[in-house]
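Last lecture ended with a question: if I hand you only a sequence, what can you say about the shape of the protein? Today we answer it with a concrete record. The protein is ComF family protein. Below, first the input exactly as provided, then the predicted structure, then a couple of comments.
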Amino acid sequence: MHNRRALRPFTSLLARLPSQCEVCRAWPAQRVCDACVARFAPPTPRCGGCALPMPEGVARCGECIKHPPPLDACLAACTYAWPWPDCIAQFKFRGEAGWAGPLATLLRSAPWVEPALEQCDLVLPMPLAPGRLAERGFNQAHELARRLAPAKTEAALLLRTRDTPAQSGLPRADRLRNLRGAFAVEPLRADGLRGRRVVLVDDVMTSGASLFAAAATLRLAGAAHITGVVLARTDPPR
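The predicted structure:
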């Protein structure tokens, strides 16, 4: 972990140097060139509650109509499909923090993300459990959040109180039960949430259970409006 922290200034410098596009290998280019962003992260109509792709003109999916999530809005920059899983894995699991800038730029350019950031009072990254944070060396959601809105980002307000077993394969009710009590608001700062507009940032949204559980905690603490902003959204189950 300490080695990763020591290398962070160098990885940030490398991220600003001319390089090949990681996807199409164009040179010189940003880490992901504009042509690849246009091709692999096109603007897509999505459900306003859970960010699943939807037909044009449909505001909410059936599940969000039947079970309204605790988010007022949910926005995603791209579908979790090639080339984004590999890019996110380099960032998240291989300690390549230089990916934070390019991925935050991709996220900021998604429809409605910029207005959400401008209108909110607080930007909160999805927290990691202490053990997971120590293992990884940094919180990828925090790295994204502080590049999206550094003056509004608060990393210590929403807390992860415990790690949880893998969510994959669990029914919706079990996923929510699995996450019960997994998030909390810092008690000494809870008053700062009352009546505030919040943007909640994460890297990948799969079932939405974690994001919804965190949003429900913020709602109980008095947040007036919560927008979930995620880099990538998985495909709907088939």
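Comments.
1. The longest strand covers residues 197-205.
2. The chain has ten helices and six strands.
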